[in-house]
Amino acid sequence: MDERKHVVIIGAGVGGTATAARLARQGFRVTVIEKNGFSGGRCSTLRHDGFRFDQGPSLYLMPKVFEEAFADLDERIGDHVDLLRCENNYRLHFPDGDTIELSSDLCRMQQVMDRIEGPGGMDRFLGFLQEAQVHHARGTPIAIERNFERIWDLVRYGSEIGRLHLLDTIYRRASRYFKTKKMRMAFTFQTMYMGMSPYDAPAVYSLLQYTECVEGIWYPRGGFHQVVHRLEQIAQEKFGASFVYNVPVAKINTQGRRVTGVTLADGEVIQADAVVCNADLVYAYHQLLPPCAWTTQSLAAKQLTCSSISFYWSMSRTIPALDVHNVFLAEAYQASFDEIFCQHRLPSQPSFYVHVPSRLDPSAAPPNKDAVVVLVPIGHMHKDPVDYDRLVQRARSTVLDVLHRRLGLEADWIEHEIVNDPRTWQAKFNLWKGSILGLSHHLFQVLWFRPSTKDASGRYDNLYFVGASTHPGTGVPIVLAGSKLTSDQVCRGFGQVPLPRKNPSRPPSLRPPLRPLWILLVLGFLGFLCSLTDQHLPLSFSRRQ
């Protein structure tokens, strides 16, 4: 009889697969249950007649996080994944027809800054990059590599709020350095990786621009899913984890303060000593767990990220004017974000992203043809009925019109089309209201305020979460970092010592411990800010409500 502790993981997304591998490495018996017939979740692959498309993520950022995930399994990522570096990070297309290329080459960036920003432009760019480096160096060990289980964990880093510009937005900070609207757009659109507007996203997330400029943007040969596939192989073949596909979970079984396992859609019950949920967190609390006040009040009130209409086009020819990563920016830049996040609709003039994997990896398309992915941000599903078929046609017409005017692309070059819209994201991946990146990342939905890697409702002692809506947040590298936090927490829950962190980021040196008066002032300030956003700062300083 197998006496190992049994952990059931719901969902074989990036977070679920990485957590399975890490826990199996620690000696747990791990069973991963996935509703679809493939792993990766949004980080999966679509194929058609020799064409390959990344269904979701396409930018390989923060490579050290990926390296650590494989190192925790006593592996080198280079032995499993062939990484290709993009020569240009992006090709940006502005509304006036101008184009620029962003890269990690400072000499080329000097030319871009001189042309767009004029005298002193390069110095201002380096100033922006220096600030982003501070956000990266100080923000990573605080916000990504540690948990925030108690309010005191947040208070401890109260002195960092100013340095990380948590109370400012990316667009306002960028405007301090760049004089032109073009450069402000060029270094703020990246907030869409988190499904947020640059006019709302905390400025600390300029750490994304830093890692792009310094570490570059990479792409795994064979598609982004290769990362998940290799983690799954290691988990199964090296550590004995079990993956079960095409089996939806109907509910998480509970008894008192513990979860006892899961019930599958066909009625089968699987017992477990602990459950890790990699399904969408909001969906899980609403559909898989018994209702409670925290779910219907606190969680239901949290803001979601946007959705998207994504087109996957098999092209009859190559489109040389398109690079690997292309962004077409709207003239009404701020208004387009307001339409997405305030009015929850398709912008009248959307900015959109175009990914051409075959430009870097020829295996993504047949010879002399291109695989093209177009992502058009749109508001998540709302209470009002929406004719998504009409919106898909409108988005398609808008994108094709822009691509025709700018690049000469013709609609009849599209041999085949696959479309994902908010309905697809919800049905295929159980994403609440079709929100493709989970809960938003504004100030009161990060760190201690974000749902914890351990049951945020405070009801169950052996229920854990990993994924976009859980701390530390969304995006493949951030979710991978979260899998480390979750697996460590599971280990501690069973009295095991977690694996030591490989090459941890150097934590920022803190000022002397806060005196009681300063603690009261910080708590009072947090309480005041909470009152402005209808959040609650419980007097018990506990997540349980």
Estimated share of beta-strand residues? 15-25%
Which class of the largest domain in CATH terms? Alpha Beta
Structural class of the secondary elements?
Answer: alpha/beta
Helix content: 25-40%
CATH level-3 fold name of the largest domain: FAD/NAD(P)-binding domain
Strand order in the sheet with the most strands: 7-6-15-16-17-14-18
- Count, helices: 17
Span from first to last CA?
Answer: 40 Å
From the spread of the alpha carbons, the general shape counts as: globular
The biggest beta sheet reads: 7 strands, mixed
Number of strands: 19
CA radius of gyration is 23 Å
Return the domain count. 3
Summary keywords:
single chain; 545 residues; alpha/beta; FAD/NAD(P)-binding domain; Guanine Nucleotide Dissociation Inhibitor, domain 2; seven-stranded mixed beta sheet; five-stranded parallel beta sheet; 17 helices; 19 strands; globular; disordered C terminus
What features would you describe in this structure?
This protein has 3 domains: 6-82 and 223-301 and 440-494, 3-Layer(bba) Sandwich (FAD/NAD(P)-binding domain); 87-216, no CATH class; 306-434, 2-Layer Sandwich (Guanine Nucleotide Dissociation Inhibitor, domain 2). Helices cover 35% and strands 17% of the residues. The chain has helices at 14-25, 63-71, 106-116, 121-144, 151-156, 160-163, 170-177, 181-186, 207-215, 225-238, 281-288, 293-299, 333-341, 388-407, 422-429, 476-493, 516-532, and strands at 6-10, 29-33, 45-48, 51-54, 83-85, 90-93, 99-102, 218-220, 242-244, 249-255, 258-264, 269-271, 274-277, 307-315, 325-328, 352-355, 371-378, 414-420, 463-465. Strands 7-6-15-16-17-14-18 form a 7-stranded mixed sheet. Helix 2 (63-71) packs parallel to helix 16 (476-493). Mean pLDDT is 91; it is low at 510-515 and 531-545. Belongs to the carotenoid/retinoid oxidoreductase family.
